[in-house]
Amino acid sequence: MPDKYLKLGILISGRGSDLQSVIDGIEKGEVAARISVVISNEPDALGLKRARRHHIPAIVVCHRDFTTRQAFEARLLEVLGEYGVGLVVLAGFMRLLTPFFLKEYPMKVINIHPALLPAFPGENVQQKAVDYGVRFAGCTVHFVDDGMDSGPIIAQAVVPVFSTDTGDVLADRILKQEHQIYPKVIHWIARGLVRVEGRRVHISGAGKDVESSLIEPVV
Ligand code: GRF
Description:
Blueprint: E1 6-12, H1 17-27, E2 33-40, H2 46-53, E3 58-60, H3 69-82, E4 87-90, H4 99-102, E5 109-113, H5 125-132, E6 136-143, E7 153-160, H6 167-190, E8 194-197, E9 200-203, H7 208-215
Parallel strand pairs: 1-2, 1-4, 2-3, 4-5
Antiparallel strand pairs: 5-6, 6-7, 8-9
Helix pairs in contact: 1-6, 5-6
5-O-phosphono-beta-D-ribofuranosylamine (GRF) binds next to helix 1, strand 5 and helix 6.
């Protein structure tokens, strides 16, 4: 693998549709990165099959096989190290990472969350947005710190919430945007366009593409 590509380690727990969007972006030549390894903490995750279909190493590191969180994270770090990973991409990975893990990848772990943070951190947030009655929802790509969905925000996409929406309908609408913005953000990071200053993230040199992704749904 030529060095000009950022090496991604993608962590999943389930379906892997966000993973698929990154695979597709790379295959279309829109993302200047390569997936070195996919790791799932759930042995039956559909995303493992998606990775293997594209000849990407797909490895199970099941948290239940470890007696401590640190031992689980040490094994994750070992695998990521073996594959020379430079950016850790969480894609529906349902475990919180502790400082023990994060200190090895400072500002090199990103996540996508199906809400407009800082509103609705945590789980089942599309249903919570519907129940709360908000008019807009969306998704957020952010750096991961040791809080719950609390790290510096890189990009967001907004969708409307209609009064007839169920949580599932809204989740589908948000997911379409996730599949647009996650590959883009990874490309920006791979190209060295993303700079973090405290809580604020600056993106430079990517032209209109960046601005339109930041302020409206990507079509
Ligand atoms: C997405 O909604 C993402 O925002 C959240 O988990 C879900 C993952 O979906 N973090 P998939 O497994 O990538 O299809």
